[in-house]
Amino acid sequence: MQGSDPYVMANINTPLAALRQVDFSYSPGERLILSGLDMVFPRGKVIALMGGSGSGKTTVLRLLGGQLFAQRGTVEFAGRDIAQCDTAQLYAARRRMGMLFQFGALFTDMSVYDNVAFPLREQGDLSESIIRDLVLLKLNAVGLRAACHLMPSQISGGMARRVALARAVALDPELIMYDEPFAGLDPISLGIAARLIRRMNDALGATSILVSHDVEESFGIADYVYFLAHGKVAGQGSPAEIRASDDATLRQFFDAQPDGPAPFHYPGSSLEEDFGVTTLRSTA
Question: 183-209 pLDDT, tens per residue?
Answer without folding.
Answer: 878 888 888 888 889 988 998 899 999
